[in-house]
């Protein structure tokens, strides 16, 4: 069962999320953008600031499809708005966010950078970094990051992808050793999937997004980042040409021998001569991505101070040189040995630095010894609450949300929550945590000698969500996570500021921020908007014979389990996922699931032949319980040979969007998979759940089941 075939350059991608807070990697093939970012959370932040930026970008780029506003202008306006909001905070609550956004469509795109999150390109065996290289200072925010300076400076680098190119976005800059190993491993990849997996490998602390430009017959709308792209021929390595002597001096010998890097200015000569009105989408769709006045590749867009109004694509900054658009990771050249230079003994500098350090330490010890006699001894309460580590017990103080001011027996400690290894004297202590306007919490704890006590209080509020049109269902996302469909209530939401997004199949998302207070209920109403136009789907069948494919006629067609006619057939359907089943005597049924877009024409083709594969078959239960849920199970077809096949279950409330969950293989040799349906989907007012299954194998093979509707009980 195949969907439409395209001869354009397509994008296939893979994401590896970081195993740490404050960093995020995201790829949205439907909206055509990739995002990596990292930031620091202030005590006023309830959610990860990178999630906040990701959600705002998704809303901006997923707006009205008929909007005349180019995507690049929308992305720039979103980053400027985030920067303005950060700069409007008090200094004590201000944080920083380093972000890298790539917009792509077909074979062209644009990279937009604020901070030090890098973008690398692997082409013909050569790994290059796109854009400028920023200086590293662990004690300060990354240079150019959002919220770090009065003016936001955005760097824009046009991308001109060629088939076989692989772009890698990382939340953290990679070291020279990591780049050398990555270049070597990428050169040994034999197909697209292994190339993407290699590009996403690395430490768990950093996240990566890798996407490759491929050609051929592919599903035009990939559903998940885990889908296997089609195979691609082996990558042929091009010989490295000798470099001019002036440039050879700036390269490391180890990188030269590996052939790992090349100057982006050399590898993309066409990008160095980009006209200021660079057409991202070509003559036919240039206005869909790039605004007028976009600077040439590598140019910097220096924005006005936060709060002032200015054009989204400002004038290039004089401080940043456009020649920094693509710079190799260079190692300083070895010192010259052509002439004799008198040198001091190696230990002389060590002695000077060591002597200075000892003098500073001695001065600090002297000041520490005389300070108590000058300012007086601390109060007894403070001494008791802050006993030396090891003389009493220890407190570990956590909170949700974090950032609460802490008092122990009326004495305030310097750190806010989370605070660990707080040493106190044995006995009873009164703990007070203060979140300001959000509320106050008091607890009493007993600490034994050498004991450890942990506190994890949560300040909670209540929020209800409903649709402006009671007859229409809206999906609800809070801080980027799906929480259910309208009407729905969350009675245990952490206090603070949250970003709420409403959406649905074929609808433009709307968002609003909500302030949740302790013991207070808030009601939010999502704008359902106008009804989306139905989409048109044409179902065809074909028979593979000795002479090739022959068009089929008269094959019965079921849509969402209902008989609708025979092939060829055109039907009008509401936007959203729909299943299609086509039968022909002597062959297994061909089943596919298609996401129908509003107001468009789409095609589904059922191909029958000697290699026709059996679909996924599911025996639905009579009902699914919310209070005592059981996993749904499904098996691969008997003749399935691919042991790497992965299965996913998609579940949705009636009228809502499907939520994906990966299934678990029961054992290594079994063809049976199982998974629990998301509780957020089961809790809906219709008391029903719709679900279907999808199998993804090597080389992009896909197997589907039909869409089933199952009752839900308590």
Q: Can you describe this structure?
A:
- The strands form ten sheets. The protein has a six-stranded antiparallel β-sheet with strand order 2-3-4-5-8-11, covered by helices on one side. Strands 34, 36, 37, 40, 41 and 42 form a six-stranded mixed β-sheet that branches. A five-stranded antiparallel β-sheet has the order 1-10-9-6-7, with helices on one face.
- The protein has 714 residues and is α+β, with helices and mostly antiparallel strands.
- Helix 1 packs antiparallel against helix 2.
- The longest helix is centred in the middle third of the chain and has 30 residues.
- The protein has eleven helices and 42 strands.
- Strand 23 and strand 24 form a beta hairpin.
Strand order of the largest sheet: 2-3-4-5-8-11
Helix content: 10-25%
Number of strands: 42
Q: Find the structural class using helix and strand composition.
A: alpha+beta
What composes the largest sheet? 6 strands, antiparallel
Shape: globular
**Overall pLDDT level:** 76
Low-confidence spans: pLDDT under 50, at least 5 residues? 2-8, 217-342, 377-390
- How many helical stretches? 11
Oligomer: single chain
Strand content: 25-35%
Task: State the end-to-end CA separation.
Answer: 38 Å
C-alpha-based Rg, rounded: 30 Å
């Amino acid at each position: 069962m195949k969907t439409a075939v395209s001869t354009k350059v397509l994008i296939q991608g893979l994401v590896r999320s970081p195993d740490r807070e404050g960093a995020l990697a995201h790829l949205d093939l439907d909206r055509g953008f990739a995002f990596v970012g990292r930031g620091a959370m202030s005590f006023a932040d309830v959610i990860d600031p990178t999630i906040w930026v990701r959600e705002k970008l998704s809303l901006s780029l997923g707006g009205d499809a008929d909007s005349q506003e180019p995507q690049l202008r929308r992305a720039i306006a979103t980053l400027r708005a985030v920067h303005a909001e950060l700069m409007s905070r008090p200094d004590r609550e201000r944080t920083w966010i380093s972000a890298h956004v790539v917009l792509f469509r077909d074979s062209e795109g644009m990279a937009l950078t604020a901070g030090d999150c890098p973008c690398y390109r692997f082409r013909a065996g050569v790994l290059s970094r796109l854009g400028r290289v920023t200086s590293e200072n662990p004690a300060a925010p990354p240079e150019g990051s959002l919220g770090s300076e009065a003016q936001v400076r955005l760097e824009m680098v046009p991308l001109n992808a060629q088939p076989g190119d692989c772009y890698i976005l990382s939340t953290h800059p990679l070291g020279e050793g990591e780049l050398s190993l990555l270049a070597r491993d990428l050169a040994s990849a034999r197909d697209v999937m292994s190339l993407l997996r290699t590009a996403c490998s690395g430490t768990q602390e950093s996240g990566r997004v890798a996407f490759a430009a491929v050609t051929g017959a592919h599903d035009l709308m990939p559903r998940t980042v885990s889908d296997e792209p089609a195979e691609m021929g082996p990558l042929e390595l091009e010989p490295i040409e000798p470099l001019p002597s002036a440039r050879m001096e700036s390269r490391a010998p180890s990188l030269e021998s590996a052939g790992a890097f090349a100057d982006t200015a050399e590898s993309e000569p066409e990008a160095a001569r980009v006209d200021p009105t660079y057409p991202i989408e070509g003559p036919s769709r240039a206005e869909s991505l790039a605004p007028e006045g976009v600077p040439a590749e590598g140019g910097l867009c220096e924005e006005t101070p936060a709060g002032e109004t200015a054009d989204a694509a400002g004038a290039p900054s004089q401080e940043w040189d456009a020649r920094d658009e693509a710079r190799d990771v260079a190692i300083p050249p070895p010192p010259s040995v052509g002439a004799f230079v008198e040198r001091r003994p190696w230990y002389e500098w060590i002695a000077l630095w060591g002597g200075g350090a000892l003098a500073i330490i001695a001065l600090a010890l002297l000041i520490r010894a005389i300070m108590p006699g000058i300012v007086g001894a601390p109060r007894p309460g403070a001494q008791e609450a802050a006993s030396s580590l090891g003389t009493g017990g220890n407190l570990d103080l956590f909170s949700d949300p974090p950032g609460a001011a802490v008092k122990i027996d009326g004495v305030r400690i310097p750190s806010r929550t989370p605070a660990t290894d707080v040493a106190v004297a044995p006995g009873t202590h009164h703990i007070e945590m203060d979140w300001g306007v959000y509320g106050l919490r008091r607890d009493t704890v007993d600490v034994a000698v050498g004991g450890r006590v942990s506190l994890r209080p949560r300040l909670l509020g209540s929020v209800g969500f409903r649709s402006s049109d009671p007859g229409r269902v809206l999906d609800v996302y809070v801080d980027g996570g799906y929480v259910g469909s309208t009407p729905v209530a969350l009675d245990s939401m952490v206090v603070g500021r949250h970003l709420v997004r409403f959406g649905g199949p074929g609808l433009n998302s709307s968002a609003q921020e909500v302030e949740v207070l302790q013991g207070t209920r808030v009601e939010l109403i999502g704008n359902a908007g106008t009804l989306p136009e139905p989409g048109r789907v044409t179902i065809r069948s074909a028979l593979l014979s000795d002479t090739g494919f022959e068009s089929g006629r008269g094959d019965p067609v079921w849509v969402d389990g209902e008989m609708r006619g025979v092939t060829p057939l055109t039907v009008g359907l509401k936007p959203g996922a729909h299943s299609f089943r086509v039968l022909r005597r002597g062959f297994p049924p061909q089943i596919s699931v298609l996401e129908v877009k509003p107001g468009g024409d789409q095609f589904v083709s059922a191909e029958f032949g000697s290699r026709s594969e059996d679909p996924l078959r599911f025996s639905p239960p009579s009902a699914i319980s919310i209070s005592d849920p059981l996993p749904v199970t499904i098996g691969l077809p008997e003749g399935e040979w691919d042991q790497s096949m992965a299965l996913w279950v998609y579940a949705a409330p009636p009228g809502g969007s499907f939520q994906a969950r990966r299934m678990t293989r029961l054992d290594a040799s079994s063809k049976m998979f199982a998974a629990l349906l998301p509780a957020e989907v089961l809790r809906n007012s219709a008391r029903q759940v719709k679900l279907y299954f999808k199998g993804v194998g090597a080389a992009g093979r896909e197997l589907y089941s039909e869409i089933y509707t199952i009752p839900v009980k308590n």
